[in-house]
Amino acid sequence: MSIRSEQEALIGWVFEAYLMEHHHGDILQLIENTSEETHHAVVVNAMTLFEANMEVGDFFNAYPHDVLSIFDKVLYKIAMELSQRASPRGQKPKELRMRHTLHARITGLPVCPELTRNTIPRCRDVGHFLSVTGTVIRTSVTKVLEYMRDYMCAKCRHVFTMEADFDQFYTFSPPVACPNPSGCTSSKFSCLSGVSEPAACRDYQEIKIQEQVQRLSVGSIPRSMMVILEDDLVDSCKSGDDVTIYGVMCQRWKPFYDGTRCEVELVLKANNIEVNNQQAGTSLLMKDVQQEFEDFWESYKHDPIAGRNQILLSLCPQVFGMYVIKLAVAMVLAGGVQRIDTSGSKIRGNSNSFLYVEISKT
């Protein structure tokens, strides 16, 4: 099943009204900054959009691929209209430069088990738009992906365009017969992209995310899943980042060959990605704990060594004395702070303090 024409018109009308009300200035700014090869995004709050019309939310849950495509078309339409109004008379708007560079990115899904997950989705979630939280454990190199290719019929010289099949790792499968409306039945085609450079390409990257251990039950082994990033989402995160990814659950498999086993893989095709590193650090440092920390050192501001000794008294209070040993252990525990290298990756620190114990004979 697919979306009917009247449903598509309703979705387009609601989304157009939402863009004009909430993102009019953002689109104008994108028009001014849009270059030929740079992709730009408009972040759409799902809660605000669905409150305007709940039917759009139902269609979005049932047909996420189709609705996202409609969103991009409407966004391009609004951008063209605003560009025509803003451009001086006689100057042509940036039509070709914006056709494939504007994207609607979804965020703010309702917090419910059907849409928001802290664990890796399963087979029953294929075809649904989800918000998945996890930790990036691996990132691949950025690649250039050809997603569209022109073919020409060897008999009637009809030229047609084919899109790469996402389900089969973006491979191209020519049609069985010529799609010429005149009725050509030839099955021989030549690829025009082999003569010249590919015209339809996009940035492509794969990352692997893993479930966060602190969100799992005791004894559970964290699972992992591949995530597909395209266009402006590429290089938006790195290994070690805690991320929330909004996207559609999909299946993919290698092309079929005789004697080979078909293995189906679950992947998440990302529509938006949010890095939660700063938010996680802020949430862990609660205001009352920070205030208690400041009050403690305020009381010992004239004698910080006494404050340090007070902390040492709380270190392993069951063991009496051993002041120097406790001080050395505290230094080791306080050392090894993580650092951030030049690439922005977090590096686990090493404790460089050594504990020397002298054993005397009695």
Biggest beta sheet attributes = 5 strands, mixed, barrel
Runs with pLDDT <50, length 5+?
none
Radius of gyration from the alpha-carbon trace, in angstroms: 28 Å
Q: What is the assembly state of the chains in this entry? A: single chain
List the helices and strands in order: HHEHHHHEEEEEEEEEEHHHHEE
Would you tell me which CATH topology of the domain at 5-108 applies?
mini-chromosome maintenance (MCM) complex, chain A, domain 1
CATH class (first level) name of the domain at 5-108:
Alpha Beta
Pfam family, one: MCM_OB
Keywords: ATP-binding, Helicase, Hydrolase, Nucleotide-binding, Nucleus
Subcellular location: Nucleus
GO molecular function: ATP binding; hydrolase activity; single-stranded DNA binding; single-stranded DNA helicase activity
Written description of the protein model:
This protein is α+β, with helices and mostly antiparallel strands. Among the domains are: 5-108, mini-chromosome maintenance (MCM) complex, chain A, domain 1, CATH 3.30.1640; 282-347, no CATH class. It has helices at 5-22, 24-33, 46-52, 54-62, 64-86, 95-98, 277-284, 287-299, 304-313, 323-334, and strands at 40-45, 102-107, 116-117, 129-139, 143-153, 159-163, 189-191, 200-210, 224-230, 242-252, 265-275, 339-340, 346-347. The chain has a 5-stranded mixed barrel. Strands 1-2 form a two-stranded parallel ribbon. A hairpin with a 5-residue loop joins β5 and β6. The longest helix is centred in the N-terminal third of the chain and has 23 residues, at 64-86. The model has no long low-confidence stretch (mean pLDDT 81).
